[in-house]
Amino acid sequence: MGPEQQQDSFSFDSMSRLVAGVDEVGRGPLAGAVVTAAVILDPLKPIEGLDDSKKLSESRREALAEIIKERSLAWAIGRAEVEEIDKLNILQATLLAMQRAVEALQPTPDHALIDGNRCPPSLPCSSEFVIQGDGKIEAISAASILAKVTRDKEMIELDRKYPGYGLAGHKGYPTKAHIQALTELGVTPIHRRTFGPVRRVLEGI
What we know:
This protein is an alpha/beta fold.
């Protein structure tokens, strides 16, 4: 069953089931946690303007995040820390963070729609993945917005704790400036040691 078919089944099933959208932010950065969100939208309280968080301005994301929290039937944030990412690998850590977000929802959803091409193996409900779901399904869009706003704020706070790396600007992604700062200032406790650019600094390559 392809993504379009999955979306059609979602539209039908959502009339009688609690369906959560789930998305992640932070798989690619060299620093910080991977953050996920799960959202059950309230069909009686529609939210205009939901879209893939990457397509929205920062101010629009922040405004929508507050609306999502106010109007959703339920929402929750999940995360996997740097130590878990280095221990498990980023894929498994992301799936674990998604599982934590879904498990934190009250009420528990009947079904979860997961952005991407893989579902966490141990969810408390049935699930299916939707490729590029953050631009197709509103519940996943809402989750992508909450996850993005949450992680961005965390990186701004970490920028104050670890000045000089530019975390508030690039949010931990491997920009040229970030890699240069790593080389000059060294690796911090919030850097992912198994990621290539960080590992190379540690090994002096």
